Amino acid sequence: MNRIDRAFQDLRPTGRLALIAYLTAGYPSLKDTPALVEAVAGAGADMIELGFPFSDPLADGPTIQAASQAALKQGVTVARALEAAAAARRRTTKPLLVMTYLNPVLAFGVEAFCRQATQAGIDGLIIPDLPPEEAGELRGAAAQAGLDLVFFVAPTSTPARIRAAAKAATGFIYCVALTGVTGARDQLDPAVLPLVRSVKAETSLPVVVGFGLSRPAHLQALRGVADGAIVASALLDAIRLEPQDAVGAASRFVRGLEAR
User: Which pTM value belongs to this model?
Assistant: First the structure.
């Protein structure tokens, strides 16, 4: 059993959602990344998703795009992001996942990327622009390296697409809470709850909701339906507003989500 499986298993008897905190590797700087991972893990995050910056992040809204651009301007590459991930692993035992796009993985080399991600202590990969039917090479390399590979479903997903994602995924299914890009929202789209139930009818894997989640009420609405929640843009916004105390800002924000 890997760290992701164990985290969900440990939470299941409590009925509590797994809180997955998203951070951009290299934002505000590479040296901050390990400390930020340690801080959000200590503040209550059950897993950490590290976004590797990419110049054309199709699924990301303004906040994550800005964080990625800031990291790229500082010279953050896949290799340097993996080094930051390895440093972060030394500071926490919580599961770490990488979120990136397919092009950086292909440019780095699929097998090399998976191998080095495992060496860095990464537990899973999230690739938003990789559909299940085109994932054969990466699925094989990830499985060989012992990495989970997460797939997406969205409000626009057909029943066939949901079944394909459920069949291909390991670790968990990422259920997009809205139609559009990432970014904090005031309200949770009520359509996400029946979508989660539809996904659960097709798989025994945990179902995690992301995109737009920003406050305790969003997480509370998902309790008893989903297995986890990803908070991304709202956390990066909190860091952006307190650049001189990024670690403290991240810790305070995650603690504020604790009622879940």
Answer: 0.93
